[in-house]
Amino acid sequence: MILTEMTSEDCVDVLAHGHIAHVACAKDNRPYVVPIQYAFDSPSLYGFSMPGKKVDWLRINPLVCIQVGEIKTNEVWRSVIVEGRYEELPDNEQRHNERLHAWSLLEKRSNWWAPGASKPGPTAKTGKALEPIFFCHPC
Question: Which of 18, 98, 102, 113 has the most CB atoms around its CB within 10 Å?
Fold first, then answer.
């Protein structure tokens, strides 16, 4: 197998055509990696999650690494790694339009909320619906 460095255009192509990424974060020198569905609208990746370990850790340490791969065969594949900062898109006046934009991009795919959550609904503990969390990662 021959490894070659990808051009910026190649990287954008992989990001634009993919929809599953692996998000790596760290807390107290411990790594944590999970898959997410994402949407790419240059220059940002948009994702979705429900509250949990990933979001808790990213709020503490917003430095994030995202890996997206494209595998055609064992010998033909491409992988892009993007490093940057996690930014939540709360449903407030300042980020409302960007949050709606993220939602509109993500919902174009079936099961866009997986694996970030099952369909949002009441939780067993509180009986209240959990608030979905949309986020972006400027590339």
Answer: 102
